[in-house]
Every structure is written in C-alpha cells, then in structure tokens.
Design brief:
The chain contains 10 helices and 8 strands. The chain is of the alpha/beta class and 291 residues long.
Amino acid sequence: MTRLLFLLLLSTLFAHSQQKNQLRFFQTDWGRNVSWDAFCEKTKAAGYDGIETWFPKKLEDRLAADKALKKYGLQVIYLAGADKTVDFETSLIRYTEDLISIASSAPVAINCHTGGDFFTFEQNKAFIDAANKIAKENDIPIYHETHRSRFSFNLPDTERYLKAIPDLKLTLDISHWMVVHESLLESQDKNLEEVIDRSYHIHARVGHAEGPQVNDPQAPEWQNALKRHLDIWETVIRKRWSENDRPVTITTEFGPPNYMPTLPYTQVPVADQWKANVFIMKALKERMTGE
C-alpha cells in the first residue's frame, strides 16, 4: 500500500468515526417572546444546530422564520399534533393535511403529538399509519412523541403500539412517563428496551415522580433524576450510533410557565429556562463526546 493510499484510508476512517459520533442539538422556541431573528441569533451563539417549533400557520411568520434560519445557518424540526377537541374523523383529516403541508417545507424531521388517550387503539393507529405513509412519500422522518394525553401517554400502551406497527418511530420524552408512572422507572429497564430501540429523536427535559420538569436540573436535589435521564438518553444515542452514521437529533425542552415553577402572585420563574436548556446540551455533549 502506498503512503498516499494509506493516508487516504486513515483520513476516511477518521472522518467516518467523527461522523458516527455526531449529535445535533435543537433549541425549543417554546415561550419565545422575541423576533425570529433575535431568537435564531441567540440560538446559534449558544452552540445549537437548529430549532424545534410548531409549524407557523401564518405565511408572514413562516417567511420570517425561514429568513432567520437561513441567515444563521440553522436547521429546523417542525411540530405537528392531532386536534383532540373535535371528533376522530375531523381530527384525522386535519392532522393529515397539516403533515402534508409541513412535509413540503422539507424540515430535518417532523415530531408529532399523535392521537389521543381517549381515542381507541384503532383510531390512534390510523393517525400513525397516515403519518408513516406521508413520511415514506416525502422521504422525511416523522416521529411520534411519548407524551401525556396522546396514544403514547404511558409505557404499557406504547409497547402495544410498537408491537402492532413495525415502522412506528418515537421521539422519546421520558419526562412524561416519570409523572404518569410516578417514578424514575428504575424497575422498568427491561420494558424500556423496545422503546429505546424505536426512539430516533430525543426531547431532553428532566422530569420527576410528581412533575414533567424539575425546577433546575443543576440543583443538587435533582441529581438522581438528572442521572437517570442522562443514562436513558445515552442508551438511545449509542443504539442509534451502532446502526448508522447519521447524527442523533436532540431537542432541549425545558419550558416556560406553566412547566417552569413560578412564585405565587408574581408568576416570576424560579429558574432560567434558557440556562436549563443550555446546561442539558452541554451535559450531554460532555458525556457523549467529551466536548
């Protein structure tokens, strides 16, 4: 082997290794109260690769978001959801129409709040099947978030859907299940295996047995909850890394009120939402890549 060929091979292997260990972080725009330009500028400066947001319904809002995303070189994951305030048939039609519209804008992925806890198994499956069909037709990943009040509001029910729908892909927001099951799911590692195998996007927020969000993930009283979430997220990331070279996408999703606890009367948040999200991004980067 010539020296040039050897160096080329070494470079290829190095590049492959680097690519395999990539993470892509997205910042939630939940609670955004500044312009798209200001928000995207701050997001880029913090070290994020993109944002996750509900698909803007108004054209002027969508154009402003697109302009800011391009200006700061950010990617986007769009959110979509089923309307639970209407009957099943109407909800399914609206859900399908929304996904077709969102897919035409070619986001990195679409994250769905799919179905509802009061829809039947067959009705919820219809939502999932419709989304998966659109995903294939448009070659865009559509993930279904583990979320309270949706088909995936708890672990046992989600397992049932996973068994019935082989191409069901999840966004894992494990914080919701901590509340539903009133624990950190310490005894459920075996039952979580299939969920982890089918999780392709992560919502990184730390929950606890009595709520979907700790007030401050850096506080010492929440270190057990933080470690439990980091351990689960790491397992998902390593699973995806073992299968392909595509970066794993993660949205830091600490929210504003009413998720963030506030003082009574004044409604002043007891911690900083932005700092909590950036802390989670840095903690995951350090754990997974040493950065």
